[in-house]
Amino acid sequence: MVSFTDNLADDVTLEGVVMNGVLQGRDAVRAQLGIVSGFYRDRVDTFSFDAGSYHVEEYTAVVDGRPIKATATMHRNEQGEVDAVVVNHRPLSAALTFSRLIAESSLGAEWDSRRFYRPEGQTYQDLLDYSDAQVDTH
Predict the structure, then answer these.
(1) What does pTM read for this prediction?
(2) pLDDT value at position 12?
(3) How far is residue 111's CA from residue 56's CA, in Å, rounded to a whole number?
């Protein structure tokens, strides 16, 4: 089975509730998706459909003992490549757990420390400040 990650545009973006900011670029997006896929246990695909240039899928899983639901929306450009991915996880407790796991991974160590949730030494205001700075730069 071919994964959508095999057809990412060079300038693909990834956004999601588990991180601050927008990740851009095929290699960066593949790296993050590769790390996070290892956190899922007992993944069950709920539904999947195409609507024009969009593909939407929903699934449930367990992340670090917490049930989680996710909805992923992917946009395909005129060449059929995926150029935008948005993944929304719920509930909040599971999303924060997921974000913390990414922060503690090798990927989290490589990237900006404020991109992911770090309960030790990070305040709510730190998250807001980082998010506000990301909005100001776009």
Answers:
(1) 0.84
(2) 97
(3) 28
